[in-house]
What does this fold into?
Amino acid sequence: MNSADIDGVKKTLQIYFEGNKELDSKKILSVWDEDLKIISTEKTQGPPAWIEMEEYYRKEINNDMTQWGIEFDVITTDIFRNCASVRVDVKYRVGSRNFKETQFLHLLKKGDELIIYSKIFTCY
It folds into this structure.
């Protein structure tokens, strides 16, 4: 693992985290592969699922971003050659509701960028 690999993962995660904080699906999708799989205990989805989630959360908070909060804590990062696996613990605030999620993000190098190819998660 070299510093360029670590910087590449950090850059991808920064864009992903910013997109979530802003509820901006275009920003999030910019670091996701178009064939990304989003897998939870409930179902497997693709990138269009996040667009639906953005719409759902915007409706839940009546488009008032002061009612939206999300925090990310990177727990582990494992990089080998052109692959990376990252565990992220997430805290959400949607109005007066709070919940948590653990995400396992899997990244692959595509050209000079690291792109998220899968997201496995569970909410609690």
Remarks:
- The beta strands are 32-39, 44-45, 68-80, 83-94, 97-110, 113-123.
- The chain has one domain: 3-123.
- The mean pLDDT is 90.
- Residues 1 and 79 are 6 Å apart (CA to CA).
